[in-house]
């Protein structure tokens, strides 16, 4: 079994980098803090005797040799970047659980036929740079390298520039190699396991996502002498669309999620009618048909709102990530691991996107969920228990060892 | 008569300071650019033989002596600060029209019994520091000095600090002295004069205003795995209130205006449900009863929205500026000036607040409006014709000379 204490200590050590006052973490992708986190991980992997490689998207691979080192690796991992008001576990758990598996194999001097690699995927969150999972997406051939490196943050800085700046623009080609199996351990980030009182979620797949960027242009004018009837208030139009996004989420239950997470209004002055508003939409559903229906509803409403109010509108779908089904063998390995270790478990669909979603296109893939307190994630108060995290890590160990010796 | 060309040239010279690509001006209160504008104005006043004093709120007074210099001054003026996407005339016209009056009196060597002063009021716009007209408000005893100096921008910098930094924290006491009469020339900032084809607006008074700051606190959570029914999305609540603000404006016609000009959402990340949204509300109406009714409607809706959705809400009315009626003698002087000079004119109520609104509490006050193109202000495309501006300046000259010799 893994050492739960060691895993916990590593998590708490990593959480110091970008620690927030409210007990969370702000370690945005490709910032100085992200570099610090990557450096710490790399030094731990060095200590564990791994060889480390970095690819052109900044993905890090720490490798423990197999007895037949020419065989394709069994891979695990997740991400070290966080949301602006992120927690200590989202992503980090999957990376450090992978490290803990390597440390445990070392402890017991276990040899595996296949090499085992722990991956850190760049910019999984999609918060500083959209879309999410962009570097695992390049690895899986969903995006090309140029697209990945040219993703820009709101200040116009690109991933390529920022990778160079922090010294993680590696030389390895991105992807294009065989992987025996990929497993990602993660906190659930939702309320189901806690509610069902299960320790392990055997992840069957993930729901689909559509991300949009919408810019409404009206006309700036004085908030005092401009009669209501003459106005083109971009924020009023945006507010109607935001309310509709919420309606679409509500009316496509069960399962639909609909969120406007980001909004920027210009010139953002109390007594000037907003002339331009930029905002994003995040739609999710496990069924592709419903996701398409939500898409159609949003387009129709946004177009009508723009037309009726005489606004200009730029409406762009910037990301579509279809629903994912994981590999049966990998899913079974996770379920079997839970049973051998004696943990309560249930099948579950992931509400979040994960690097595993993209890797599943190029390798047999599975995921392991553990509960998080009140189902809260993307929040500084995100919590998980050392016991549940150790349990998830043990299931990961079982799954990896099984796959690495076939 | 005044020299319209000279007035226009000075306006264009001042407009270079903070000039924007779209032909407007961004010269926010107490920035380096505001200092530059103030310096330019002061040098022009020096050249015109004025003595210059600056008070503790940074208000500038350029004085042309009277033949009986112990008599209280006739004063005119406005402001040099602009909106983030402001125009070349809002405020600046009133200041430079005052200067043009002094230059004209010099040209013809006209002596006035009362001294004449041109004032530049600090932070009239209320954009960088809320509320608007804060320094003329301190001058009029509506706010105390400490309140004025402690107004802070969104970065927490106070007016007191910024006045010191740009060297305009003067030593004169703020207000407390007699003023014979105050006149302010300004572009209308609305569509009425243009629509009625009149050159001069004889301003009878100004509508009332109520400004609010509202903070809605919900709960940050992941946009993917968090079921709609469990969410407390602060931006959804804010959007409902913004839509209602617009409804209140629409349903209290004629005359009501209602605007949300400023919004900040946190953490502002595409795939995190917004945890906290801060926004402002600007309500206006010429009738106090209707303004109170609008206030009651907003409070009721906001409270219900917060309660029903389980949000925390901070709801603060940060400014109340009641409807203003200007002094009959001053209004008549403006009307008479228009008639003598032969300009078409009409009575009008100001939709915007102006420094004159506060000065009217401590001195007989009147205002002169000239048309602006398409009624557009607080917009980089704000335009006014040299002819109309010269006309307004001539009316100002008449009104000042009349009042300065009684
Ligand atoms: N796990 C996670 O938070 N992923 C971010 C991408 C998403 O929003 O689903
Ligand atoms: N004149 C002007 O733009 N004043 C700003 C204060 C207001 O919003 O009324």
TrEMBL record, chains A, B:
Single Gene Ontology MF annotation: hydrolase activity
Superkingdom to which the source organism belongs: Bacteria
Signal sequence coordinates: none
Ranges of residues in domain Peptidase M20 dimerisation: 206-308
UniProt keyword annotations, A-Z: Hydrolase
SUPFAM superfamilies, alphabetized: Bacterial exopeptidase dimerisation domain, Zn-dependent exopeptidases
NCBIfam families referenced in this protein's UniProt entry, alphabetically: hydantase (TIGR01879), PRK09290.1-3 (NF006769), PRK09290.1-5 (NF006771), PRK12891.1 (NF009527)
PANTHER family named in the record: ALLANTOATE AMIDOHYDROLASE, ALLANTOATE DEIMINASE-RELATED
Family: Belongs to the peptidase M20 family.
Protein name in the entry: Zn-dependent hydrolase
Naturally occurring in which organism (per UniProt): Sneathiella sedimenti
